Amino acid sequence: MNEVFNAQNINFLMQGLTLTLKIALATCVISILFGTFLAITKNYGDKLSRFLASVYIDIFRNTPLLLWMLAACFVLPVFFGQFPQAFWGTIGFSLYTSSVMAEIIRGGLNSIPKGQFEAAYSQGFGKFFTLFYIILPQAFRRVVPSMLSQIITTIKDTAYLAGLGIAELTYKSKTILANLRSFEEILAIIGFVAGIYFVICFSLSMLVRYYAKKTAYAH
Amino acid sequence: MSESVGFVAWLREFFNSLGLYDEESISPFALWKFLDTLEQTQTFIDGFIYTLQVSVLALFIAVVFGTIGGVMATSKIAVLRAYTRIYVEIFQNTPLVIQIFFLYYGLPHLGINLDLFTIGVLGIGAYHGAYVSEVVRSGILAVPKGQFEASASQGFTYTQQMRYIIVPQTIKIILPPMSNQMINLIKNTSVLLIVGGVELMSTADSYAADYGNYAPAYIFAAFLYFIVCYPLAYFAKFYEEKLKKAHLAR
C-alpha cells in the first residue's frame, strides 16, 4: 500500500502536474485573448467578419474538445512544421476554449448599457478607444465569476490530453495505474490524483463564490 | 455499405471527368482522401449510433441523479443537503477522465467487470448528474417562496408540493441550461477514446490513424457531432430569449 507512494512515483506525477499547470495557464491566456477578439468581432464587426466569428464559435462549441486536440496534433503540423505534441495539443485546446470564452465575454459586452458607447463617443473617443478604455474593463469585471468557472473547466479538461499521449498528470497516472495489481493501490493513486485536481479546482470555485457574493452586494 | 461505395465511385468518376481528381496529391485535404473516408460511412455511422446510445442512457442517469440531488439540495434536512453538496463538489472538481479511470482500472479488482458501454453510461451519467443537480437546484430556488407557502396552506405534503406545484414550474426555467448540459454530455462521450472505446471519436481516430486520412476523418466526425449538438444549442438560445421576453412582458 505504502509502496505506491514512493519517491519515484510522486516525482513522476509531480512532473505531470507541472505540465498540466503550464498547459492550463497557456490555454487560459491564449483563449481569453483570442476569445476577446472573437467576441468583439461577433458583436461589433462588419457583416462578413461577424458571420465568420459566429460560424467559428458555433462549430467549436458544438463539437468535442478531443476532436480539436487530435486535429491540431495531426493536421496542423503538415502546414506549420513539427513541434512537440504538447504544443499542438495546447493549440487545439486553446482554439476550442476560445469559442467558450468568446461567448462568456460576449455576455459581459452585451450587459453594458448602450449609453456608455454614446457617452464615450460624445467625449470624442473613437471606436477602438471606447472599447479598450470604457467597455472592456467593465465587461471583464462582470464576467469574472463565469470566466473563473471556465478556467476550472479548462484545468479539468487538460485530462483529455491523456488521449494523445501527452505526459500530463492524467496520462502519468494512467501509466502508473496500468502496472498496479491491487485495488488498494489503484484506489490510492486515483484518490491522490483526483485529490490534486480537487484541491486546485475547489479553491478556485471557492473564489468564484466569494467573488459572486461580493459583487452581488455591490449591484 | 455497397450503396455508399457505389455513390463514391460515381463521385470519383465525376471529379475525374472534371480534372479535379489527383490521386498523387499529398495534401491532408486532398479530394481522394475525402472520398476514401466517405467509403467508410458505415463505420462512422456505427460509431455515431454507439455515441447516441451512450448519450441517451447517460442522460437518463444524469437526469435521475440530478433531480434527486437537486430536490435533496433544497430540502430542510441538513444531512441531505450536505450529502448532495459532497456529491456535486467531488464530481464537479475532478476530471471526468479520472472518474472513468476509477471504473475502468479500479472496479475489476473488486470483481466488478463492466464493459466499456456501461462504464461510459455510468461514468458520464454520474458526472453530468452533478451538473444537472445544480441546474435543478437553481431552478427550484427560482420558484418564488410564496408558492411553497401557498401550497402548504392548501394541505399539500412536501412530496406533493414538489410533485404537483414546484417541479412543473421548474422545468420551464431549467430547459435552456439543461440543453446545454445535454450538449456537453454528448461531447464528453469522446472521453471513451482514452480507454479505447468504439464511439464516434474513437472510430474516427482509429480510421484516421490506420489510413492517414486525418483531416477528412475529423471533419466527418465533427459534422456528425454538430448535427446533434447545434439544434440543441439553437433550441436553448431560442427558448432563453423567449423566457426573457415573457419575463419582461410581465
TrEMBL record, chain A:
The protein's name: Amino acid ABC transporter permease
Gene Ontology BP annotations: amino acid transport
Family that this chain belongs to: Belongs to the binding-protein-dependent transport system permease family. HisMQ subfamily.
Cellular compartment(s): Cell inner membrane; Cell membrane
Keywords: Cell membrane, Membrane, Transmembrane, Transmembrane helix, Transport
Organism of this sequence: Campylobacter vulpis
UniProt keyword annotation of Membrane present: yes
Record's bilayer topology term: Multi-pass membrane protein
Positions of transmembrane segments: 20-41, 62-80, 186-212
Entry's Gene Ontology cellular component terms: ATP-binding cassette (ABC) transporter complex
Residue span, ABC transmembrane type-1 domain: 17-208
Annotated SUPFAM superfamilies: MetI-like
PANTHER family reported for this sequence: INNER MEMBRANE AMINO-ACID ABC TRANSPORTER PERMEASE PROTEIN YHDY, MEMBRANE COMPONENT OF AMINO ACID ABC TRANSPORTER
Source species, domain of life: Bacteria
GO function terms (MF aspect): transmembrane transporter activity
From TrEMBL, chain B:
Compartments, as annotated in UniProt: Cell inner membrane; Cell membrane
Domain ABC transmembrane type-1 residue range list: 48-236
Membrane-crossing residue ranges in chain numbering: 48-74, 112-132, 215-236
Transmembrane recorded as keyword: yes
Signal sequence segment: none
Alphabetic keyword roster: Amino-acid transport, Cell membrane, Membrane, Transmembrane, Transmembrane helix, Transport
Membrane-protein topology: Multi-pass membrane protein
Known role: Part of the binding-protein-dependent transport system for glutamine; probably responsible for the translocation of the substrate across the membrane.
Name of this chain's protein: Putative glutamine transport system permease protein GlnP
Taxonomic lineage of the native organism: Bacteria, Pseudomonadati, Campylobacterota, Epsilonproteobacteria, Campylobacterales
